[in-house]
């Protein structure tokens, strides 16, 4: 059977374990040898006990766990050719020619580069007498399937990334909790949520948590945002509401591209409305805890589909990302997704917010 390795890379997210489990079990079911690579690309570079064969029971009782049981890392060594050379040697030693990478766009781009370089890496290894010419021939093709694991939902090509739904559950639980104490004291709360340069978590949290105001990167605050905010908060209080909730994405900005922070918002509310105001930064709580049913299913479906894609791949097959399109698991060319995701980042950097939103939607 084929040798498949699965690893998680970059920031963790809930549902990654479900994906790992599905890869292992689908792989074994189809007669493959499946390996874990621990600690992401770092484990691939370091080899040894970081690359170990998985069996059916090594993924028992993990579907309900948050994080990733095989560890994740942001790896510097893999960015250097020397590191990738070591990684290639470690994979060939184990007969691994198929990779399932679970991570964000950086991790998926790294995998694609690795694949493009693969034959030249093997050549160098033969030259250094680290592998034999027979090994080079036998393992000459590296296949890659990517799964997008991130709470941010910032990847083009898929409707939902693995972890986003669970993070939202965590966020709205926190908003609900804050609402009760805010009500008692007639307070205003500003809650900062994650998402990097993407406002998805903040926007959906605001809608589902009945927030009064939201700041997101894709809809930068106008120069009169302070007046608009105060008017809205006053309106709600006049209508009888005892509290206000403001959600601010960690990447929120104004029209000049300058950050809008929770502290800035608090100052506006306190100075103008004299409301008793508190800030809650949710932080990594959002990335932790048990995955939702949605993320367990999403991870499971994506993992199984990744193995199928690898099994069906031939020499000409381009690497793919397993995406959710409506309710379907589909295969999308990896580089197309990465390219589009980068185009969104560029549009944001160029302050072309509408274009960014359009590009993100058109996946
Ligand atoms: O990409 C996931 C994410 O949680 C972002 O929302 C956040 O900006 C970042 O990672 C935090 O990174 P770190 O875990 O390295 O602090």
Helix and strand layout, with pairings?
Layout: E1 3-8, H1 16-29, E2 33-37, H2 40-46, E3 51-53, H3 81-94, E4 98-103, H4 105-127, H5 133-138, E5 143-150, E6 162-163, H6 164-185, E7 188-193, H7 200-208, E8 213-215, H8 225-238, E9 244-249, H9 262-273, E10 277-281, H10 293-312, E11 320-325, E12 328-333, H11 334-349, H12 353-361
Parallel strand pairs: 1-2, 1-4, 4-5, 5-6, 5-11, 7-9, 7-10, 8-9
Antiparallel strand pairs: 2-3, 11-12
Binding site for substrate: 150-152, 187, 194-196, 250, 278, 284-287
Keywords: Allosteric enzyme, ATP-binding, Cytoplasm, Glycolysis, Kinase, Magnesium, Metal-binding, Nucleotide-binding, Transferase
Main location: cytoplasm
What portion of residues is helical?
40-55%
Low-confidence stretches: none
The major pleated sheet works out as:
8 strands, mixed
What structural class should be given to the helix and strand makeup? alpha/beta
Give the SSE string: EHEHEHEHHEEHEHEHEHEHEEHH
Radius of gyration: 23 Å
Strand element count:
12
Percent range for β-strand residues: 15-25%
Listed once per kind, the bound small molecules are:
6-O-phosphono-beta-D-fructofuranose
Mean pLDDT: 96
* Helix run count: 12
The quaternary state of the protein chains shown equals single chain
The best one-word shape is elongated
Distance between the termini: 34 Å
Domain Phosphofructokinase: 4-309
Binding site for ATP: 11, 74-75, 104-107
Subunit structure: Homotetramer.
Active site: 152
């Amino acid at each position: 059977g084929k040798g498949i390795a699965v690893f998680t890379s970059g920031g963790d997210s809930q549902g990654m374990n479900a994906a790992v489990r599905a890869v292992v079990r689908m792989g074994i079911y189809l007669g493959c040898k499946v390996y874990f690579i621990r600690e992401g690309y770092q484990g691939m570079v370091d080899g040894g006990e970081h690359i170990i064969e998985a069996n059916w029971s090594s993924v028992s009782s993990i579907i309900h766990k948050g994080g990733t049981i095989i560890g994740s890392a942001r790896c510097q060594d893999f960015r250097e050719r020397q590191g990738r050379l070591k990684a290639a040697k470690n994979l060939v030693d184990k007969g691994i020619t198929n990779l399932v990478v679970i991570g964000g766009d950086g991790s998926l781009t790294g995998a694609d580069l690795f694949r493009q370089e693969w034959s030249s890496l093997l050549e160098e290894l033969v030259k250094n007498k680290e592998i034999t010419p027979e090994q080079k021939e036998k393992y000459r093709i590296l296949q890659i399937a990517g799964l997008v694991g991130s709470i941010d939902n910032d990847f083009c090509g898929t409707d939902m990334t693995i972890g986003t739904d669970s993070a939202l559950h965590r966020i709205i639980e926190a908003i609900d909790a804050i609402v009760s104490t805010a009500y008692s004291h007639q307070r205003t709360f500003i809650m900062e949520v994650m998402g990097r340069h993407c406002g998805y978590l903040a926007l959906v949290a605001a809608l589902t948590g009945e927030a009064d105001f939201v700041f997101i990167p894709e809809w930068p605050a106008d120069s009169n945002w302070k007046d608009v905010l105060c008017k809205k908060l006053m309106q709600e209080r006049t209508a009888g509401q005892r509290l206000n909730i403001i959600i601010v994405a960690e990447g929120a900005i104004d029209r000049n591209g300058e950050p809008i922070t929770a502290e800035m918002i608090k100052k506006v509310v306190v100075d103008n409305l004299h409301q008793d105001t508190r800030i809650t930064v949710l932080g990594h709580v959002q990335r932790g805890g048990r995955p939702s049913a949605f993320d367990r299913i999403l991870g499971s479906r994506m993992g199984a589909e990744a193995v199928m894609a690898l099994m069906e791949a031939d020499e000409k097959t381009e690497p793919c990302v397993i995406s959710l399109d409506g309710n379907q698991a589909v295969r999308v060319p990896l580089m197309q997704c990465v390219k589009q995701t980068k185009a969104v980042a560029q549009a944001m950097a160029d302050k072309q917010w509408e274009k960014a939103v359009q590009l993100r939607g058109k996946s």
